[in-house]
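User: Reviewer 2 asked us to show a designed sequence for the structure in our supplementary figure. I'm pasting the structure tokens here. Could you produce the per-position amino acids so we can include them in the response letter?
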């Protein structure tokens, strides 16, 4: 790793003390095998950590389905941007639209399973594209139902969050 006097640095606190740590990686940096392995590990850990609560809810609620959960992971991966914090400086995501996409993707998956017996060979991007076309089509017979359900779920999640905050 080539670090010199011109290498950018960032201050980090370690055990209450501030240290200047080099930041040698820039866009376009060619990764070594070790760096690639580390980034892949961080990616997998971030996805695992960010979805752990949702998977636990499904398991605890008795509604866990491996294929559905894998689709959730694959969908999250497709939308994930390494280094972008979704709560702050990242793009703004409408929680109701996101929930409508989850609902509709599940409906699309269920239809594919009924028609073809499973999801083998079906790409997540194709499921998501079909789901997006359904939720954006005001003439689709289930359009209003999907959006109403998404609104209800997001409102329920907010109510639960408020209860958690009140209890804390």
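Assistant: Here is a per-position design you can include in the supplement:
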């Amino acid at each position: 790793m080539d670090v010199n006097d011109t290498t950018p640095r960032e201050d980090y606190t370690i055990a209450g003390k501030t240290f200047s740590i080099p930041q040698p990686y820039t866009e376009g940096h060619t990764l070594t095998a070790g760096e690639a392995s580390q980034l892949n590990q961080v990616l997998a850990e971030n996805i695992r950590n960010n979805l752990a609560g949702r998977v636990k809810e499904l398991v605890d609620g008795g509604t866990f389905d491996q294929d559905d959960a894998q689709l959730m992971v694959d969908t999250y991966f497709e939308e994930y941007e390494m280094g972008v914090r979704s709560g702050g400086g990242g793009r703004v995501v409408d929680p109701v639209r996101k929930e409508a996409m989850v609902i509709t993707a599940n409906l699309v998956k269920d239809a594919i399973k009924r028609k073809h017996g499973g999801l083998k060979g079906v790409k997540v991007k194709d499921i998501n594209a079909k789901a997006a076309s359904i939720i954006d089509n005001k003439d689709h017979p289930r359009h209003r139902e999907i959006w109403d359900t998404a609104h209800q779920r997001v409102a329920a999640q907010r109510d639960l969050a408020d209860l958690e905050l009140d209890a804390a």
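For the response letter, you might also mention the following. Strands lie at 9-14, 17-22. The longest strand covers residues 9-14.
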